[in-house]
Amino acid sequence: MNNEKERQFTAAGTNIQEVKQKNAEAGLSYNEVKALLAQSGGHGTAIYSDTDVEEVRQDIQKHQ
Questions:
Q1: Which residues lie across from 35 on neighbouring strands?
Q2: Residue 51: which residues within 8 A CB-CB, separation 6 or more?
Q3: Which pTM does this prediction carry?
Q4: Mean pLDDT within 10-21
Q5: I need a labelling partner for 40 at 20 to 30 A (CA). Which of 10, 21, 49, 53 fits?
């Protein structure tokens, strides 16, 4: 049982389960923020976008 308790803490004494819980409650992850920005048109996020560029071009040409 002592071995189990030791695994819950890092060598520096940080409670691993507490850190995991706080991270889960903290909000969006870094990757979730990147995806959200890509969907909403954030600056410099084109590489994360799932927009079909050809489809957009065709749609623009239809309306011109």
A1: none
A2: none
A3: 0.38
A4: 92
A5: 21
